[in-house]
């Protein structure tokens, strides 16, 4: 039997109705004879709410105590999903980060995974159980809870998949893959069927809120393909792996208000496209502060705020 790791983000598990959709996806793969490990985030805006509550108590809450507090969000999700699956007739057990053997360094709020003891996970899988693990958290040498920072559940999922030598690692969210540009801003955004690890790392570093950067680094190190899909439809997703399909422009990202980045393998040799970008900048009378070009990325910093219209012009050109 193959081991498959599934990760569901906060929007996918935001309420009980969405938990039922998640449960059906899990059951579908479980009934095909797979060993299933599920990593989940806290429900909806739970983490934001917990941070706000802590800040009403202290202007400077201790990092250790914040990790203890914030880790509870994922623990609520794993318990609820396990309860639901068992009620539906499918054996499931929930594990916190330390129960799953996720060992980290001593850095609170932004801990790094140093190793995973998979014994407990594998024991539960051998019993035929669906194993549901709290993302975003582990434990350190002092047996204190540590957390991984925003998007840390992605890192949990990929690290566990690598440790278990899983066949696939699926990252489910409310979008069905990686797009050529933010589909919420540009109507003709196109979904990408595949990206290399390098391209995905460039996108993450420039602010694309698709995958946690560290999870892509782990995936690249252990050659673990990541498949990003939507929880709410059956559309094909985007595969992130070490295979580079073609030398072409892949995606455009607008970071904060004053940087636009274009990512794609071999971009440094695409002089025609670089010329088009300069023409758009000149045509719109934009004041450019800096332009950096590497093998797989062009980043342009501007003096003033850049509108989505500029993003759309560049996207239309490619």
Structural features, described:
The protein is α/β, with parallel strands linked by helices. The chain has two domains: 3-174, Carbamate kinase, CATH 3.40.1160; 251-317, 2-Layer Sandwich (Alpha-Beta Plaits). The protein is 36% helix and 23% strand. It has an eight-stranded mixed beta sheet, with helices on both faces. Strands 13-14-16-15 form a four-stranded antiparallel beta sheet, sandwiched between helices. Strand 1, helix 1 and strand 2 form a beta-alpha-beta unit. Helix 1 (16-30) crosses helix 3 and helix 5 (152-164) runs parallel beside helix 7 (213-222). The protein is globular and about 65 Å long. The mean pLDDT is 88.
Number of helices: 9
Beta-strand segment tally: 16
Question: Helicity, in percent?
Answer: 25-40%
Strand order of the largest sheet: 3-6-2-1-9-11-12-10
Q: What structural class is derived from the secondary structure elements?
A: alpha/beta
CATH class of the largest domain: Alpha Beta
Distance between the termini: 43 Å
CATH architecture of the largest domain: 3-Layer(aba) Sandwich
């Amino acid at each position: 039997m193959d081991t498959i790791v599934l990760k569901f983000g906060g929007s996918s598990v935001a309420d009980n109705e969405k938990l039922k959709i998640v449960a059906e996806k899990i059951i579908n793969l479980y009934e095909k004879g797979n060993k299933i490990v599920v990593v989940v985030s806290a429900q909806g805006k739970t983490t934001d709410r917990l941070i706000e509550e802590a800040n009403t108590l202290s202007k400077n809450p201790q990092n250790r105590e914040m990790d203890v507090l914030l880790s509870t969000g994922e623990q609520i999700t794993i318990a609820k999903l396990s309860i639901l699956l068992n009620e539906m007739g499918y054996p499931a057990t929930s594990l916190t980060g330390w129960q799953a053997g996720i060992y980290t360094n001593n850095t609170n709020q932004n801990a790094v995974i140093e190793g995973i003891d998979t014994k407990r996970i594998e024991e539960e899988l051998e019993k035929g159980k669906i194993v549901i693990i709290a993302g975003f958290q582990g434990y350190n040498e002092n047996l204190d809870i540590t957390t991984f920072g925003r998007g840390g559940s992605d890192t949990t999922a990929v690290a566990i998949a690598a440790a278990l030598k899983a066949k696939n690692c699926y990252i489910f969210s409310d979008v069905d893959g990686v797009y050529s540009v933010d589909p919420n801003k540009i109507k003709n955004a196109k979904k990408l069927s595949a990206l290399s690890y390098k391209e995905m790392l460039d996108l993450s570093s420039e602010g694309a809120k698709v995958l946690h950067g560290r999870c892509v680094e782990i995936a690249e190190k252990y050659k673990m393909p990541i498949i990003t899909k939507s929880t709410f439809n059956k559309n094909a997703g985007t595969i992130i792996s070490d295979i580079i399909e073609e030398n072409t422009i892949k995606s455009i990202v607008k970071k904060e208000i004053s940087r636009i980045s274009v990512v794609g393998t071999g971009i440094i040799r695409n002089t025609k496209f670089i010329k088009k970008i300069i023409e758009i900048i000149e045509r719109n009378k934009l004041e450019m502060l800096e332009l950096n070009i590497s093998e797989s990325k062009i980043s342009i910093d501007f003096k003033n705020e850049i509108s989505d219209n500029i993003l759309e012009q560049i996207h239309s050109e490619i």
